[in-house]
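Need tokens for this chain, all 222 residues.
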Amino acid sequence: MVDQSTHLVFRLIKDQALQSEGRIMKSAIAILTLGALAAPAYSGGFVAATAPVEQHTVNVPTQEANWTANYVGAILGYGTTNRQSAAGEDSREGFTGSLLIGHMRDFGQWVGAVEVTAAPGQNAEVGGLELKWAVAARVKGGFKFGADSRWLGFATIGAGRGKVESVGTGASRYTNGYLYGAGVEYLLNDRFSVGAELTRLEKTGDGDADATGVGLTAAYRF
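Here are the structure tokens for all 222 residues:
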């Protein structure tokens, strides 16, 4: 009887031990499973939620063109010359060309320049006279406009002097005159500009003469 009781007690203890061992194994398996599931999340480090990035438009002010420069260039034009003399009135049309050199200064919205032009004679007779050469000095003043202030509208006024020769006799003399006009110019970049102008030259002194022409200009700036 005692042996049976003892055997029963040991069996109960064994069953309790087996049940406890089973629960421990299940707990261990559950812990390992959770660890395995959590490992990928931690292997990459903690990833925090990022706020959306706001896009801001930055308005960069455009830089206005600076017209200050020395320059050299040329004028190619077409014009009409008229002369009134004792023999009557004579008129000629033709192409003209001249070289120019000048200095321009930018004063903000306004621009000023001084310029000298030189032109060879065209060997064209007008009223018994032939122009051998001519030079002129003029001032220009105008205002900037357009995108980046690359356009310049201007007016010009100046004085000129030339040498004319009488056809047939070969006698030559010097003649003076004044000029005025207007035009536009466009600044391609810091080195080059192009433009167009309308000018009128009126002779002073002996005999009435005038010339009206349009010209295309191109200049190298430095």
